[in-house]
Amino acid sequence: SRITLRQLLDHAAENGYGVPAFNINNMEQGLAIMAAADAVDAPVIIQASRGARAYANDLVLAKLIEGLAELYPHIPLCMHLDHGNNEATCATAIQYGFTSVMMDGSLKADGKTPADWDYNVGITRKVVEMAHWGGVSVEGELGVLGSLEHGGGEQEDGHGVEGEISHDQLLTDPAEAVKFVKETEVDALAIAMGTSHGAYKFTRKPDGAILAMNVIEEIHRRLPNTHLVMHGSSSVPQDLQDIINAYGGEMPQTWGVPVEEIQRGIKHGVRKINIDTDNRMAMTGQIRKVLTENKGEFDPRKYLKPAMDAMTKLCKQRFEEFGTAGQA
Ligand code: G3H
Ligand code: 13P
Ligand code: NA
Ligand code: ZN
Fold it and tell me: Which regions span the lipid bilayer (predicted)?
């Protein structure tokens, strides 16, 4: 059944677990996430980006979610807008039945230019007022997502921000976080501590110099009742890189966020953990494998079924690692 982000993360905080938020673009990903949740009895957050909404079509996406919820009525399901960029994208998501929206005011509506304090507080506060009229939750973001190692700027995945980003902006300031939550009344706060979107986060296994988990601990100390969100939280597992590269892929060696660092975050207020890249890689590895081993194959089910199964396996693993399993 449908649940808001606030309801789900309140339960997660009371019981000391984290909830992965998996991105969805199509039916296969939706079925894979729900099969994993059902197998381990976990509540789920399914999130769609603006790109996903354009790709699948809002109406088809909404009906897909309706179908998934009906198929698994015993699984609490939060449908969340990932990186809403203005009031309108948040409002239309709510019209299509999303129970939670992210208003990412850390960047201007172009999704590239870092925004100032007044812009972020103003637009986030406005979305919170509007969403709360209808009982919908809101996630805000303070601090600019981007690799500390690369000094922000353009990332290899093209998700980078425009211009020079100072080291300061890449780490959320704990004192500002307190002020931001008070002024906006967001239900959850996404923070920046050195991660970035996509597969190319770090060129080595991250340590405290490039993945600042201590920032999370300090924010949690000052905001013990605020649900924290980690974006860019794919672990980019070595075995998935290896499968892709064994079957014709050419992904340069890379490192993501180690699961044990996320588990450390969960001990310090992290309740929502955004994961897209790992699932993309899990699916792509199997598609490459099937098509490489069976060059005459042309039935999409023959490669999409293994792709779904690989995604289900990854999702189950994260539910277990984050303590979500058994909490539905
Ligand atoms: O924000 C990053 C998520 O992985 C969604 O990516 O905008 O390509 O759908 P996307
Ligand atoms: P990854 O690219 O690390 O999976 O992060 C996804 C994300 O933060 C979506 O908002
Ligand atoms: Na989000
Ligand atoms: Zn994100």
Answer: none
**DSSP state for residue 251 in the 8-state scheme:** P
Which residues have beta carbons under 5 A from ligand 3 (an ion)? Answer: 82, 102
Please, which residues have CB within 8 angstroms of residue 91's CB and are 6 or more apart in sequence? Answer: 130
What is the residue with the minimal CA distance to atom 8 of ligand 1? Answer: 51
Q: What is the rounded CA–CA span in Å between residue 244 and residue 228?
A: 32
pLDDT value at position 101? Answer: 99
**Structure tokens belonging to residue 311:** 């995604």
276 lines ligand 1 (CB under 6 A): yes
Task: In whole angstroms, give the CA distance from residue 288 to residue 294.
Answer: 10
Instruction: Indicate the SS3 state at residue 22.
Output: strand
Q: Which residues pair with 142 in a beta bridge?
A: 191
CA distance 281 to 237: 9
Q: How much distance in Å is there from the Cα of 70 to the middle of ligand 2?
A: 27
Ramachandran area for residue 15 (φ above 0: left; ψ -120 to 50: alpha; else beta)? alpha
ipTM summary value: 0.98
Distance (Å, whole) CA 193 – CA 211: 6
Terminal C-alpha separation, the chain: 10
Domain 5-321 sits in CATH at 3.20.20.70
Sign of CA dihedral 113, 119, 121, 122: negative
Domains in the chain: boundaries: 5-321
Give the tens place of pLDDT for each residue, 7-47: 999 999 999 999 999 999 999 999 999 999 999 999 999 99
Q: Is the CB of 80 under 6 A from ligand 2?
A: no
Residue 194 to residue 170: CA distance in whole angstroms: 6
